[in-house]
Amino acid sequence: MDLSLSTRTVGDRTVVEVGGEIDVYTAPKLREQLVELVNDGSYHLVVDMEGVDFLDSTGLGVLVGGLKRVRAHEGSLRLVCNQERILKIFRITGLTKVFPIHTSVDDAVSATD
Amino acid sequence: MATVELRFSALPEHVRTARLVAAAVARRAGVDEAVLDEVRLAVGEACSRAVGLHEVNELTTPVRVLLIEDEKKFSIEVGDEAPHTPAGRPAESAGRPGAGEPSRGAGGDEEDDMGLAVISGLVDDVEVSAGESGGSIRMSWPVTSAPVLS
């Protein structure tokens, strides 16, 4: 399965809905999307990963890159994920301490700290 | 001899194929269903790393994946042909200027390290070796049930 991406605005947040597999082949598309959003002035991003079937370290690298970009503008990058197999990768790499991970888009959109 | 041997051009689009094949052979070998996600992820990481090393070193040779079924364990060996320095870093990329973010990330040192971190976090039995003529990552998992016949 390829990667699907769609964006929508909720208040001052931009929600990026990601579906499919994020790996060495598809991760550049996600990177482009995040770079484009930041270049267009969207600094508060919510990446909804509920539709993601597979995530590897290349995908993690892109998310970390996105976080660095929004932080340069005092922005935020929040993740939405409930899937144990995806969460496990964040835990193994210690990235649960780096990304705020929410159980729903509503929760992520209304989070302030 | 390996149960299944796979060789693919060192291109990112083929890594998914390697993941699918490895998971299918692991399932057949009797690797626990609960562990198959880990097999898929670990072989994907190892193949992504190998593809990155081939790209950085401009190698046209394929990446090699050996899937080996034993009585008590299932092993995967992913081999690259990138020349490594004694420290384990690819010879050419070690001196590569770190000009911003790599266009594709697979060859980036940071992401290479993250890939290895994921593998060592996932797999208990893993061996990384590297020499002048290439490197390999060998991983194995216990076989917990009788092989699937269907």
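qc> Chain A has four helices and five strands.
qc> done
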